[in-house]
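Give me the fold.
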Amino acid sequence: MRTPGVGCRTFLRLLDSHSPEQLFAESSAALGALGLKSHSVSAIKNPDWTLIDYDMAWLELPNNSVLTLNDTDYPLLLKEICDPPPLLFVRGNPKILALPACAIVGSRNPSISGLDIAFNFAKTLSQCGFTIISGLALGIDAASHQGALKANGYTIAVAGTGLDRVYPAKHKELAMEIVKTGAMISEFPPGTVAKANHFPRRNRIISGLCLGLLVVEAAKQSGSLITARMALEQNREVFAIPGSIYNPLSRGCNALIREGAKLVETTQDIIDELTQYNQQDDTCYEKFFTTPMQSTLDLEQQTLLNLVMFSPTSVDTLVENAHVSVEVISSMLLILELQGYLEASPGGCYTRIK
């Protein structure tokens, strides 16, 4: 792992013909014949023990471990992908990597309704026995981890750095909560800093670990869509939350649905597809999006709410349709926003979110 010029694919190719012990016993000429460059051969014959000692010191800390492809705890689903990580560093409980899991990914800058959906879907799926997998990023990832924790369930964060650090740094407390019962995992050794090219690589692990992957909100060009397409290539189920054609954060999900992802409105849509892994009865989940809400609104507020679309609706349109003054409309809109029925949209518009 610490050898320059030896990436995942080269590592796996070498393991096809050699055990690590055999490889380190080979001559420089034999290593060169295996296709290794001279600087890689030099590093194998004269390892950088400073880096390796750092790794070993990290592994001696409580709750830290590393899995090789031959370990019984190495997840079987991940082993099936074309380029599984030869080593998985783990903070937390490696046993949970074998449990049925659903991944949830999405925008780093989601809407309020997107956060709510991710949190509630993660909570409900966790209550049904699924481990929730995500990438610890801002936005949808964090909400998904938090939903699983709220249900006292398991969640796994796949990192794009070494596990001796947390990225983004503001999620240090969330990371600590995750490893208490779940796990953080990475293919990158301790000391590895965040780099842009690390995150597409870690996405194949998120999709590789799961039975199904849910995309909550995603722009047309986004890392979430990369993860979803990796999931399709890995023969995983892909689910997407549909959204307004006017919302740029819905375009990625709507595109996935056009390409064959399953349109999802409730957690039951996911459970129906993954039913063979759901060992609990139907009462284990709450139908957050199918149970009618008990309205606490008065008649005027309810009437106004019914005029607000699930896509941006201008105040002028509401004034025209409600036949009341802009002052009254603005007051009621503020109340509805504070109660979580609406969110403000750019251009002086409002969007209904429940």
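The CA atoms of residues 121 and 267 lie 6 Å apart.
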